[in-house]
Amino acid sequence: MTKTWFITGTSTGLGRLLTERLLTRGDRVVATVRRPDALETLTAQYGDQLLVLTLDVTDTHAIKKVVTDAFQRVGNIDVVVSNAGYALFGAAEEASDAQIERQIATNLMGSIQLIRAVLPHLRAQGGGRIVQVSSEGGQIAYPNFSLYHATKWGIEGFVESVAQEVAPFGIDFLIVEPGPTGTNFVDGLDRAQIMACYEDTPAGDVRRGVASGAFAIKGDAARTVDAMIMTADMQHPPLRLALGSTAYSSISQALSQRLSLLENQKDRALSADRLN
């Protein structure tokens, strides 16, 4: 049975590949881009199977307008994929105010407002699924990605709460957490102005590692997208889906360490309760 998907950020990377995969298997896709010509080749190939809409997710008014337009033009939408993103690279002190605002506006506010915009339509049609593309960086943290992590941790908390709010309406969520994957992610990093005082710190180490290509990128983009689609097709998908061996091991290690720290302070935690 074919489905209709709404996907943001489809010009490149996982969003583009996801769109191509779904069109190939016969699904219908509403794809949003910031540049109207970004998907010309796919439009020429797939015709009415693909509807391309222009959207900058930092524009809340535009999100509401485009979402309403999409539902009016295609009817029911089975799966909404919040994929558009931006990554700021640099120590927190190095980033400019404008860069920080863009990071939060794109990854956090953009995703929040997209989800808020689609909920009334999904309720009206009797349910649907929302896929939030996050990252392993939604559960772990590396130096030089502090603002990026802030948005990914933030959107995961938002989704986990909203999922409980809208479950009675037949709406569910899938949070996708890829590790380092063979896309244009590194090339697309917005780099903060370097401060010399961070050269001999963990932030400097990460910066040099990224520049030298020392960090292994084990994730395959096509296999990552295939796993996303397979999981999104499940009747009852898990709330979170880690993708790639790096994501699996790093998230597992982080959760184990966090649980160990919590258990070690159990007595102190319980001591804060009222005595009566």
The CATH architecture is 3-Layer(aba) Sandwich
Number of strands: 9
| Average pLDDT over all residues | 94
Describe the biggest sheet?
A: 7 strands, parallel
Give me the CATH fold name.
Rossmann fold
CATH class: Alpha Beta
Please tag this protein with its features:
276 residues; Rossmann fold; seven-stranded parallel sheet; two-stranded parallel sheet; globular
Structure in words:
The protein has 276 residues and is of the alpha/beta class. The protein has one domain: NAD(P)-binding Rossmann-like Domain (Rossmann fold). It is built from nine helices and nine strands. The chain has helices at residues 13-24, 40-46, 60-74, 97-125, 146-166, 202-212, 221-232, 245-264, 266-270; strands spanning 4-7, 28-33, 50-54, 79-82, 88-89, 128-133, 171-178, 190-191, 240-243. A seven-stranded parallel β-sheet has the order 3-2-1-4-6-7-9, sandwiched between helices. A two-stranded parallel sheet has the order 5-8. α3 runs parallel beside α4 (97-125) and α4 packs parallel to α5. The chain is globular. InterPro entries: NAD(P)-bd_dom_sf, SDR_fam, SDR_oxidoreductase. This is Short-chain dehydrogenase/reductase. Belongs to the short-chain dehydrogenases/reductases (SDR) family.
